[in-house]
Amino acid sequence: MLSTRSATALYVGAVLGPGVLLLPALAAEAAGPASIVAWAGLLALSAPLALTFAGLGSRMPEAGGTAAYARAAFGRHAGTATGWWFLCAVVVGGPAVALIGGHYVSELLGAGDGAAVLAAALMIAAVIAVNAVGLTVTARLQLGLAGLLAALLLVAIVAALPESRAENWAPFAPHGALAVGGAASLLMFSFVGWEAVSHLAGDLRDPARQLPRAIFGALAVVVVLYLGLAIATIGVLGTGEPSAAPLADLMAAGLGDAGRTITAGLAALLTMGTMNAYVAASVRLAGALAEERSAPAWLGRPSRALSALAGLGAVLLAALAAGAIDVEFLVRATSTLFVAVYLTATAAGVRLLDGVARRAAAVAVLAVVVLLAFSGPYLLLPAAVAAVVVGARRSEREPCVEALHDAA
């Protein structure tokens, strides 16, 4: 069973990810100092999202998490689509996250692209291995990673802030107000995670009491670190084209050359922390989908689900290494899939919850719709996933799926 501290650590690890290695600087380049408005808006959105998932997780502490909420509110097809959006996001996002961290480590250690791919592969393997041991070990690892990660980011912010320059804040919105929306769409990759640990609510002793505490404890940590990081990035580094390792530049501004070395370790922590939380959640979700026959029965076995994640991750990592696809494509695809998950889950909150939680869910739905509007052609991805998985249930091939379950 999970403790409240472990659940809080899993949330912190799910939200704080490798996006902070690069996205603050990219957002500053896209919208100038006005990118701070995008940060503030997404942090404001995090509060109703956190409240919605706390309410849903307390009411329905199931391994199905977001898929279970959508199914209870809108029926089986909505639950199936939501569950597969989540799983696809983990499959697509995992190698991208690993390679972002791997390139950071490689850049700071003066190694080449081969070393980045090797580092990414080793991080994926380590996370898969830890999850194979069990959730208790996963939670203990996450508790240590989250604490160290938060401390290192706080050190980076506090050390760098005295080096801020007022001229970096003017002009405030050089690319216009619409650029703030584009920056928010980009930054969304750093804000997915509030839904992740809801899939583990069933592993809490008292979800109604523990889950809200874990979510809002994590929210407090995230607000402090993200706002501090955004302010320090703009004030210290400015809004020009970022270097390959902007967080390392921020650390070096306050701590000297030692800061860059520390950031290499920080990059690995960020990467493994995020992957650890999502792999644990996706294994639980795969089991729930298999149990209700919305996924092949073999995915219900944790060892096989982990093997599938490892195999697909290896294929995508190889494609990234070969240049067949790029990290930005996978990042934007992952963000859009998660925003789709948020849409059905928050809409389910409007239907299933009451009181303050229901009002929070209504606010979250409106904000998520706005975010989806900035996803552009990437909206085709969740639409295609939904068409395939829901269509498969309705088609004449469904008996074949049932046979697969019976055989397994």
How do you describe this structure in short?
This protein has helices at residues 4-15, 19-31, 35-59, 66-74, 76-109, 113-133, 135-160, 178-187, 207-237, 246-255, 257-291, 302-322, 327-352, 355-373, 380-394, 398-407. It is mostly helical and 408 residues long.
Which helices and strands, and how do they pair?
Layout (H helix, E strand, L loop, with lengths): L3 H12 L3 H13 L3 H25 L6 H9 L1 H34 L3 H21 L1 H26 L17 H10 L19 H31 L8 H10 L1 H35 L10 H21 L4 H26 L2 H19 L6 H15 L3 H10 L1
Order of helices and strands: HHHHHHHHHHHHHHHH
Low-confidence stretches: 396-408
Q: What is the β-strand count?
A: 0
Q: What's the pLDDT, averaged over the residues?
A: 82
Look up the CATH topology: Amino acid/polyamine transporter I
Query: What is the count of helical runs?
Result: 16
Taken together, the total number of domains comes to: 1
- In the CATH scheme, the class would be Mainly Alpha
CATH architecture: Up-down Bundle
**Structural class label:** mainly alpha
Global Rg:
20 Å
The portion of residues forming beta strands comes to: under 5%
- In CATH terms, the superfamily is Amino acid/polyamine transporter I
Overall, the morphology is globular
Major sheet attributes:
none
Q: What separation lies between the terminal Cα atoms?
A: 28 Å
